[in-house]
Amino acid sequence: MAEHSDGGHRMNVAQTLAGRVGDDGSDSFDRYTEARADKEQALATIAQIKAALLIKQVVKIEDVIQDADEAGRDLKSALSALPDRVAPVLVGLNEVDIQRTLREELRDIMNALADRMEIA
After folding, report:
1. Orientation of helix 61-90 relative to helix 95-119, angle to 10°
2. What is the pLDDT of residues 90-113, one digit of tens each?
3. End-to-end CA separation in angstroms for the chain
4. Which residues pair with 57 in a beta bridge?
5. Measured between alpha carbons, how far is 108 from 96 in angstroms, rounded to an integer?
6. pTM of the predicted model as reported, rounded to 2 decimal places
7. Which helix (H) or strand (E) holds 14?
8. Which of 56, 93, 106, 118 has CA atoms 20 to 30 A from the CA of 39?
9. Residue 33 and residue 13: Cα distance in Å, rounded?
10. Measured distance CA(78)–CA(72) in Å, rounded
């Protein structure tokens, strides 16, 4: 690397371009190098995010909000229909069978919602 003398200090060209070595030993070249490394790290992070978007590991918040809204509407609809659908089945059952039937129906609703979320 090309060097030149500056009043008893030997500096390379890169140090000269980045700034001179201070009397206290501080080196603006080191600051320049650190800033450049920070910039490269930021660019690498951006590239990782873009790659993740391409392979669907990261999603847009708008898509998440839309999917959550649809899932909420589906859950509300399924729960609202539960009494009309299950009431005729519950007539004449004892308390234990009513609880079992209601648990099964609720589990079916939750599984259907979970299956829907896995597809999205």
Report:
1. 160
2. 999 999 999 999 999 999 999 998
3. 57
4. none
5. 18
6. 0.49
7. helix 13-18
8. 56
9. 14
10. 10
